[in-house]
TrEMBL record:
<keyword id="KW-0274">FAD</keyword>
<protein>
    <submittedName>
        <fullName>Acyl-CoA dehydrogenase family protein</fullName>
        <ecNumber>1.-.-.-</ecNumber>
    </submittedName>
</protein>
<dbReference type="InterPro" id="IPR013786">
    <property type="entry name" value="AcylCoA_DH/ox_N"/>
</dbReference>
<dbReference type="Pfam" id="PF00441">
    <property type="entry name" value="Acyl-CoA_dh_1"/>
</dbReference>
<dbReference type="Pfam" id="PF02771">
    <property type="entry name" value="Acyl-CoA_dh_N"/>
</dbReference>
<dbReference type="GO" id="GO:0016491">
    <property type="term" value="F:oxidoreductase activity"/>
</dbReference>
<keyword id="KW-0560">Oxidoreductase</keyword>
<dbReference type="InterPro" id="IPR046373">
    <property type="entry name" value="Acyl-CoA_Oxase/DH_mid-dom_sf"/>
</dbReference>
<comment type="similarity">
    <text>Belongs to the acyl-CoA dehydrogenase family.</text>
</comment>
<dbReference type="InterPro" id="IPR009100">
    <property type="entry name" value="AcylCoA_DH/oxidase_NM_dom_sf"/>
</dbReference>
<dbReference type="InterPro" id="IPR009075">
    <property type="entry name" value="AcylCo_DH/oxidase_C"/>
</dbReference>
<feature type="domain" description="Acyl-CoA dehydrogenase/oxidase C-terminal">
    <location>
        <begin position="257"/>
        <end position="381"/>
    </location>
</feature>
<dbReference type="InterPro" id="IPR037069">
    <property type="entry name" value="AcylCoA_DH/ox_N_sf"/>
</dbReference>
<dbReference type="InterPro" id="IPR036250">
    <property type="entry name" value="AcylCo_DH-like_C"/>
</dbReference>
<keyword id="KW-0285">Flavoprotein</keyword>
<feature type="domain" description="Acyl-CoA dehydrogenase/oxidase N-terminal">
    <location>
        <begin position="6"/>
        <end position="118"/>
    </location>
</feature>
Length: 401
């Protein structure tokens, strides 16, 4: 695939890769994930202040760079290569687009410039235990059952206009323990006007309890968010329509960005493995000189490049995001697994870099997959098994569109 990137896009990738090569490594990552924030605050300030990463896809009127999803995807491909722990994904890919799409002018003016300059990090708190379902990636999110659906469970919004309070909890909230702002999905309106709304909750709001959870992948810090009559501000105002369709739209864009990040992870794991088998000798010759090893590496290269092409296409057309994400997650899982095998005994040690890449791939599929459900839902939306539907539930007739 000829990506035909612009000179500016190539420069974003090159500059970020050089910076991360100097500031990340085998020792830097463990040190960063063990901080209270779960990432290196000084490096985050450089990424935000010098490179403007959180504002890449935000409009210039809010202090952003006015770029597209493609630029943010390229940046995340580089952070995926370095396994960088940072709030970039939760803030710029999951939360900021929803604020930009649904927020009132006052909300956008108050929040987006602070997100763009990195002084405000944000997290998306979605109840139900499945981020992928809530974003419409692995199933239909229109019925709102994942948000509580007017019954016990999930997160419920109570009170009159201007005095809304939230009660409930959300698990596995990416960067939820340290974010300065939470965007919380809650069920509102009761049975008469049942709908799912998004609410803005400051990180220091009363009644908010956040607990960092133990995660398979330390570079993806997860949290449990508990809300006990916590005051909240409706995103877009009290009369905002059901947010399920907006979440599904944001989910497809986020899937494209995640696909690029997963490709970066797979590509880096493959490159490191190639370097290792070229240097590691067995039976008097380099391991990489054996034909069987060459075949395995060649198969991995084809798989990674195919996923890269799909991710680049999805960055330009987010409708393809879920399928690209499925292909990228599968490529990352298989490539990192083979990387551990080809490193031999050292690859099985929990502290080795090969194992960190494997944990990133496995953790991402647990959080945003699984792959077979991503493909199944995309096939249903495309009409492969009957009438096609969009996030708004409108039928388009059978067949692939």
């Amino acid at each position: 695939m000829d990506a035909a990137f612009t000179a500016e896009q190539h420069e974003i990738r090159r500059t970020l890769r050089d910076l991360l090569a100097r500031h990340t490594g085998p020792d830097a990552i463990p040190a960063a994930v063990r901080t209270a924030e779960g990432y290196d605050p000084a490096l985050w300030r450089r990424l935000a202040g010098d490179l403007g990463l959180p504002g890449l896809a935000l409009a210039e009127e809010y202090g952003g760079a006015g770029c597209t999803t493609t630029e943010l995807a390229l940046a995340c491909e580089e952070t995926g290569r370095a396994l960088l722990p940072s709030p970039l994904l939760a803030t710029a890919a999951l939360t900021a687009p929803l604020i930009a799409a649904l927020g009132t002018p006052d909300q956008r003016s108050a929040l987006l410039p602070r997100i763009a300059d990195g002084t405000l990090t944000a997290a998306l708190a979605l109840p139900g235990g499945s981020l992928a379902t809530a974003l419409g990636l692995t199933g239909d999110n229109l019925d709102g059952t994942w948000a509580g659906g007017g019954r016990a469970g999930g997160i419920q919004a109570h009170g009159e206009a201007g005095e809304r309070r939230l009660y409930g909890e959300a698990d596995r909230v990416l960067d939820g323990h340290s974010a300065g702002l939470l965007l919380v999905a809650a069920h509102a309106g009761g049975y008469p006007r049942s709908r799912t709304q998004l609410f803005l909750v400051p990180g220091d709001a009363p009644g908010l309890v956040r607990t960092r959870l133990t995660a398979l992948d330390e570079t993806r810090p997860l949290a449990r968010v508990e809300l006990r009559d916590t005051p909240a501000e409706p995103l877009g105002g009290d009369d905002t329509a059901d947010a399920a369709a907006a979440l599904a739209d944001a989910g497809r864009t986020a899937a494209a960005i995640l696909a690029a990040e997963a490709v970066g992870t797979a590509a880096s794991a493959l490159e490191r493995t190639v370097e290792y088998v070229k240097a590691r000798e067995q039976f008097g010759r380099a391991v990489g000189s054996f034909q069987a090893v060459k075949h395995r590496l060649a198969d991995l290269y084809v798989r990674v490049e195919a996923a890269r092409s799909a991710a680049y296409h999805a960055a330009r057309d987010p409708e393809a995001g879920p399928l690209a994400l499925a292909q990228a997650l599968e490529a990352a899982r298989i490539t990192t697994g083979e990387a551990v095998q080809l490193h031999g005994g050292i690859g099985f040690t929990w502290e080795h870099e090969a194992h960190r890449y494997l944990k990133r791939a496995a953790g991402d599929e647990l959080l945003f997959g699984p792959v077979h459900r991503l493909r199944d839902h995309a096939a249903h939306r495309a009409g492969l098994f009957g009438p096609a539907t969009t996030a708004s539930g409108v039928l388009h007739g059978a067949g692939v569109r």
